[in-house]
Amino acid sequence: MNRKNVFITGAAGGIGKALIKIFASNNYNIIAHCRKPDKEKEKYFDEIKKEFDIEIYPVYFDMTNYIAMKTALLNLFKEKKNIDVLVNNAGIAHGGLFAMTPVSKIKEVFEINLFSQMELTRLVLKIMTRKKSGSIVNISSIAGLDLAAGNSAYGVSKAALAAWTKTLAAEFTGSGIRINAVAPGLTDTRMAVLMEEKAKQEMISASAMNRLAKPEEIAQAVFFLTSDAASFINGQILRVDGGAK
Amino acid sequence: MNNLEKYTKVFTETFEIPEEEVQSLKYQDIKAWDSVGHMGLVAKLEEAFDIMMETDDIIDLSSFEKGKEILAKYDVEIK
Prior knowledge:
The complex is a heterodimer of chains A (245) and B (79).
Chain A: E1 5-8, H1 14-25, E2 29-34, H2 39-52, E3 56-60, H3 66-78, E4 85-88, H4 103-131, E5 134-139, H5 143-146, H6 154-171, E6 177-184, H7 190-193, H8 197-206, H9 215-226, E7 237-240
Parallel strand pairs in A: 1-2, 1-4, 2-3, 4-5, 5-6, 6-7
Helix pairs in contact in A: 1-2, 1-9, 3-4, 4-6
Chain B: H1 3-15, H2 35-49, H3 55-60, H4 64-72
């Protein structure tokens, strides 16, 4: 069967796993990026493969190791593996007032949340450009749209990712490639567990639905944007946050 | 088809121009070789010769002749 392929970065995280599941259940083969191999991830991949009878092709590299990233992509390129969809999901969180956030930390967050996504997208676009079709979804954040206090690193990096989404979509107009972003509210993943309780409660109470997002709800929005149902949606940032109060 | 024929064909097909116009062609000499056309050219060269060009080389690809030098870096000899 001629299935489509989706490349998901940060595939081992909470949203990453939900992304794998929704694309697998829609008959996609998965190129699953993780930083390094481990038994638990491989077990999850095996379960999904069995449940949905699809292929999962794991690729391992640190998002900031551009040589390893390029080697992984070069292998896909040589194997003539098509990439129909790219989900730039990998990222790191950081909260803290500007006065308490060294610029070195801001650079580190930007390196992962923006520059590494740019490097990877540049490589993936080489494959999509050949086919003159594809869809890219960047995982931004409402923190990058609302830009509350404490967001000089994470929020500003996600704002930059959202801004880049728009400019990239404009540059690829007419190429058959659509580029959008999803901006999740605080989601029930490990990232939320690690968050300071006060900040977490503030984010939850700012949502009209007064709860965390489920990873599946974010994955469904991503899948929608990559699907033909969203064929005329391009350069958009979709909030998935339960609505503002 | 040898590499020179393949290389020339990429230019003639990408920019829809005859072979005799290709030899002296430079970036932005014709309307079709603008920044968007440039990316199309790079994609077709990569596909034709099964390579992945570095960003610096994509920027340096300023003419038909220069492209030959650049491809040599990827062990593609245009003769």
